């Protein structure tokens, strides 16, 4: 007697796994634009679609996620907890997708197409003028977008994918990043013309600690680099509180006017910044009185090769 045939026969080797429905890149773009602009109409304008199209895309995303991403019961669009989480993850996904496209289009042609570079303000005016013409000549297809900002904001934008690379100064917390060396920039002492400490060939940091010290305001990494390199941290940070400059140009004018002493990066002095005021510059009598200028990018980023090429150009190579 033959055995009964099974009602259903499955060839597991040929079976196809049907994955759950996933959000599209377009839907994630709609959500990020909505979070950025806080309005369906403005987000639709930025996406270059009609408002009903964008609204339908967000609704479909909510169906896929199984939770609302925006609160529509208020005058302004406000993200829900699920929406905040989705936006945070969407940024990384969209960045990876964009890098994939850029890498494919620029295969064999580095530094072609759009490249978003952040630069700190104590480096930008002194390194970029000579480097940008070289970049334009060597990489004519490069579309370079520059953003000047403080280090902590540039690093945050770099990690979130808003920037492709950043020209910053070390030491700094670089967790999750790779970088290439550009230059070692010496930190120099700056005195008003005729100041007693300017007579010596090298400036004593111990004696400078007894003077009125002017620094850049909090947020500028050069402030921390100068204090750390010269051993003037700790209590000194509180003594000069409220007496700071917002830029190197202002700092030089304050020193030249006799308001106190300070520190300047060598690249700024070589660019002629100190000659704009009655300022005397001297090397510091301290070990490792310098900062390292680097081009940084995300770990495992497809823009790593381009980051190294940028560092080579900025280094004068």
The SSE string, one letter per element, is HHHEEHEHEHEEHEHHEHEHEEH
Let me know the number of strands. Answer: 11
Query: What is the 3D form?
Result: elongated
The Rg value, from CA coordinates, equals 27 Å
Distance between the termini: 86 Å
- Percent of residues in helices comes to 40-55%
Q: How would a crystallographer describe the biggest sheet?
A: 7 strands, mixed
Q: Catalogue the unreliable spans.
A: 1-8, 234-240
Global mean pLDDT: 84
Specify the number of helices.
12
Relative strand content: 15-25%
| Secondary structural class | alpha/beta
3D structure, described in words:
The chain is an alpha/beta fold. 41% of the residues lie in helices and 20% in strands. The protein has 12 helices and 11 strands. Strands 3, 4, 5, 6, 9, 10 and 11 form a 7-stranded mixed β-sheet that branches. The chain has a two-stranded antiparallel sheet with strand order 1-2. A hairpin with a 6-residue loop joins strand 1 (70-71) and strand 2. Helix 1 (25-37) packs across helix 3, helix 1 crosses helix 4 (81-105) and helix 2 (40-47) crosses helix 3 (51-65). The longest helix is centred in the N-terminal third of the chain and has 25 residues, at 81-105. The chain is elongated and about 75 Å long. The protein starts with 24 loop residues before the first helix and ends with a helix. Mean pLDDT is 84; it is low at 1-8 and 234-240.
């Amino acid at each position: 007697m033959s055995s009964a045939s099974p009602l259903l026969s499955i060839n597991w080797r040929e079976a196809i796994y049907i994955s759950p429905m996933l959000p599209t890149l377009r839907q994630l773009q709609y959500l990020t634009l909505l979070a950025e602009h806080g309005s369906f109409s403005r987000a639709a304008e930025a996406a270059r679609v009609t408002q009903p199209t964008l609204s339908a895309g967000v609704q479909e995303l909510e169906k896929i996620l199984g939770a609302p991403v925006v609160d529509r019961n208020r005058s302004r669009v406000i993200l829900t907890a699920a929406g905040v989480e989705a936006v945070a993850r969407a940024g990384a996904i969209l960045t990876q997708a964009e890098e994939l496209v850029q890498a494919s289009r620029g295969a064999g042609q580095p530094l072609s197409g759009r490249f978003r570079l952040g630069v700190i303000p104590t480096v930008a005016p002194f390194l970029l003028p000579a480097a940008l013409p070289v970049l334009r000549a060597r990489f004519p297809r490069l579309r370079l977008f520059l953003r000047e900002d403080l280090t902590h904001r540039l690093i945050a934008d770099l990690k979130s994918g808003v920037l492709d690379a950043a020209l910053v100064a070390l030491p700094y917390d670089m967790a999750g990043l790779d970088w290439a060396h550009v230059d070692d920039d010496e930190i120099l002492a700056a005195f008003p013309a005729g100041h007693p400490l300017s007579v010596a060939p090298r400036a004593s940091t111990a004696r400078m600690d007894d003077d009125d010290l002017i620094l850049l305001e909090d947020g500028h990494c050069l402030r921390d680099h100068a204090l750390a390199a010269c051993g003037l941290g700790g209590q000194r940070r509180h003594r000069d509180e409220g007496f700071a400059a917002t830029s190197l140009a202002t700092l030089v004018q304050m020193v030249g006017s006799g308001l106190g002493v300070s520190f300047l990066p060598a690249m700024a002095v070589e660019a002629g910044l100190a000659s704009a005021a009655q300022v005397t510059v001297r090397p510091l009598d301290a070990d490792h009185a310098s900062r390292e200028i680097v081009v940084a990018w995300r770990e495992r980023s497809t823009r790593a090769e381009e980051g190294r090429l940028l560092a080579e150009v900025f280094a004068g190579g």
